[in-house]
Amino acid sequence: MEIKKILWPTDLSEKAAQALPYITSTAEKYQAEIHILYVLKDYVEFGAAYGDTDPEADYERMRQWERETAEKRLDELCEKFLSSCPLYFRHISVGDPAKKILDFVKEIDADIVIMATQGTESHFDFGSVAGRVLKCSAVPVLMVPA
């Protein structure tokens, strides 16, 4: 098996970072690219916030803040953990996380998905994002217990 592109979906949590040793060792072994994907929630329009008469502007400010925060956290992750990897790319998408991950597998032609699970003590929660990706992915998925 040849691995040229690794997809690491992350929610930027400490649990998600537990997949990093597997990601970096796989990338180093195969000289593979690492594609880091963070998916922003697609909030439904929620109406005016307290004291705000322009709900569209409020929604856009919230989305911009979340994107800027995600970009900063992705930069920190890349600098701290991925400096030894040959290539890494950061991606931010908006929508349902499992669907966006599966779409992104096709978009970048990923060879493998490596991700942490939130896990339960006895088994995978197959209603979770990780479980949905595992069940529906067209490429191998390495699930790292969190």
Task: Give me the strand/helix succession.
Answer: EHHEHEHEHE
Low-confidence stretches: 119-126
Please give the domain count: 1
CATH H level, superfamily name: HUPs
Number of strands: 5
Shape: globular
How far is the first residue's CA from the last residue's CA?
26 Å
The percentage helix is: 40-55%
**CATH class bucket:** Alpha Beta
**Strand order in the largest sheet:** 3-2-1-4-5
CATH architectural grouping: 3-Layer(aba) Sandwich
Q: Sheet bearing the most strands, described?
A: 5 strands, parallel
The CATH topology is given as Rossmann fold
What portion of the residues fall into strands of 2 or more residues?
A: 15-25%
Task: Give a quick precis of the structure.
This protein has 146 residues and is an alpha/beta fold. Helices cover 42% and strands 22% of the residues.
General description of the model:
By secondary structure, this protein is an alpha/beta fold. The protein has a single domain, classed as Rossmann fold, CATH 3.40.50.620. 42% of the residues lie in helices and 22% in strands. It is built from five helices and five strands. Strands 3-2-1-4-5 form a five-stranded parallel sheet, with helices on both faces. β2, α3 and β3 form a beta-alpha-beta unit. α4 packs across α5. The longest helix is centred in the middle third of the chain and has 27 residues. The chain is globular. About 5% of the residues have low confidence.
